[in-house]
């Protein structure tokens, strides 16, 4: 049985597209992109999903309490038989209810080398702080912001003439690469968790 992936997003959806491409090309084998959910009306990622023929739903979050909203999303995910939830620019913290229902089966991509620069505007903060290297992180999601066990990271240099936009573009290319790799590792169960550490195992060929 193919593993069913859902992507939750709020905006552009380039990480969703990278994952969808990886599923379509077999870089993420034995998987199906089964559902895209946006909490925002008009998120470009929703349109991109529909163009690819992937079921896409807007579930508006505006004005709803966190758990009230999350119950609607969890119901949609369960109805679609989702095995793995990938947050990709989903601008919301998940409630303990959501995390518990999909414990160990929710991933997030964050555009910094966590635990440095969690939250918004990582690239601007990195440049202002003067770090020489930046990057991105794929991690399991828990109840805290950008905080769960780290699966993969990738590093890029910060150049003297970088703006938040040029740095973001360099990081984004790495996001697209490592998110697919991390999804494959998790779906194939090629890891074990010791405390906060995610220890990876080699591919079984
Ligand atoms: C990415 O930089 C991701 O790391 C962050 O939000 C951005 C989403 O971009 N969580 P996209 O919608 O995937 O293009």
Question: Nutshell version of this structure?
Answer:
With 205 residues, the chain is α/β, with parallel strands linked by helices. It has helices at residues 14-25, 44-51, 66-79, 96-101, 122-129, 164-187; strands at 3-9, 31-38, 56-58, 84-87, 106-110, 133-140, 150-157, 191-194, 197-200.
List the helices and strands and how they pair.
Elements: E1 3-9, H1 14-25, E2 31-38, H2 44-51, E3 56-58, H3 66-79, E4 84-87, H4 96-101, E5 106-110, H5 122-129, E6 133-140, E7 150-157, H6 164-187, E8 191-194, E9 197-200
Helix pairs in contact: 1-6, 5-6
Salient structural properties:
Rossmann fold; 205 residues; 7-stranded mixed beta sheet; 6 helices; alpha/beta; two-stranded antiparallel sheet; 35% helix
